[in-house]
UniProtKB/TrEMBL annotation:
InterPro entries with a match to the protein in the record: MTERF, MTERF_sf
GO molecular function list: nucleic acid binding
Superkingdom of source: Eukaryota
Gene Ontology process terms (BP): DNA-templated transcription termination
Keyword DNA-binding: no
Protein name as catalogued: Uncharacterized protein
Record-stated family: Belongs to the mTERF family.
Organism: Escallonia herrerae
Keywords: Transcription, Transcription regulation, Transcription termination, Transit peptide
Length: 303
């Protein structure tokens, strides 16, 4: 059986589209854009712009913003005007703007303090209780910024009373050079150092004379300064305490860089010098002194 394929006209396969197609469908209307007016964001107490202004302010003072934020989280929510009020307070006491970076870097909590509650009472104490002349208050603060974070009633005034009883009055009164002693605790810092010196064999009156003559003795660490220097003086230099009484400034010199080096150079040549003559002179003067001693030694051998 033969199967024949019949090819139908294309009109039978694909019906023609109706000419009335557009009339059979509804025309879509274009979308209408509905516009609404959004209310602007309400300003916050510390917007991004204001926060950036505060960071830029810190940079002008040469303060590390990261460190300031880490150590003083209150900085983030403190208005810029409050920060500048601290600057005006310090400036009113003669402290130059160039010094602010070091002061605030050491004590970032000062950035957000209240000048009238926290700073002016300290300045009043220095001026009236300690009797520091106004032009020298600036020197006191720059020398020891920690004064600005101490409580007058709990720290500064009790220490001033102790120091005056010790003998820091009259010609030995507290000055802008020694106001840093006021930040030290009497029980924890000052009295233990006096006791250490007395334990070496000094009488109380002798210790008092030493610290009045060299107030820096009250700032040195017992473990890092007194003990190693006393040990070297007594054991390596065969010194006696009487010489320390005559020259307590011995403790202010570097053990490694000056005391040991100069003593070794003298000992190698069989020479000896009092502490004051060995340490007070410059390197050039010490070298000249050493050469002169060598020449005198040669002359004696020749004779």
């Amino acid at each position: 059986m033969i199967i024949r394929l019949r090819i139908l006209p294309s009109s039978h396969l694909y019906p023609k589209p109706s000419k009335n197609l557009d009339h059979n469908h509804q025309t879509l209307k274009p979308l209408q854009l509905i516009t609404t007016t959004a209310s602007p964001p309400q300003p916050t107490s510390d917007s991004g712009l204001r926060f950036r202004q505060k960071l830029l302010y810190l940079q002008t003072l040469k303060i590390n913003p990261t460190k300031a934020l880490q150590q003083n989280p209150h900085f983030r929510c403190t208005p810029l005007a409050s920060l500048k009020s601290v600057e005006r307070c310090l400036s009113s006491m003669g402290i130059e703007r160039a010094a602010f970076g070091r002061i605030f870097d050491m004590h970032p909590q000062l950035l957000t303090c209240d000048p009238y509650a926290d700073l002016y009472p300290i300045f009043d104490f220095l001026l009236n209780d300690v009797s520091i002349p106004f032009p020298q208050v600036r020197k006191s603060i720059i020398r020891c910024p920690r004064l600005l974070i101490c409580s007058v009633d709990e720290q500064l005034r009790p220490t001033l009373r102790f120091l005056r009883e010790l003998g820091f009055v009259g010609v030995n009164r507290i000055t802008c050079q020694t106001t840093l002693l006021l930040v030290s605790s009497v029980e924890v810092t000052l009295w233990p150092k006096l006791e250490f010196l007395m334990d070496l064999g000094f009488e109380y009156d002798e210790v008092v004379k030493m610290v009045l003559r060299s107030p820096g003795l009250l700032t040195f660490s017992i473990e890092n300064n007194y003990k190693p220097k006393v040990e070297y003086f007594l054991e390596e230099m065969n010194g006696d305490l009487a010489e320390l009484k005559r020259f307590p400034q011995y403790f202010s010199y570097s053990l490694e860089n000056k005391i040991k080096d100069r003593h070794r150079r003298l000992a190698e040549r069989g020479f000896w010098l009092p502490l004051s003559e060995m340490l007070k002179v410059s390197d050039g003067e010490f070298n000249a002194q050493l050469i002169e001693m060598q020449l005198r030694s040669i002359d004696k051998r020749v004779l």
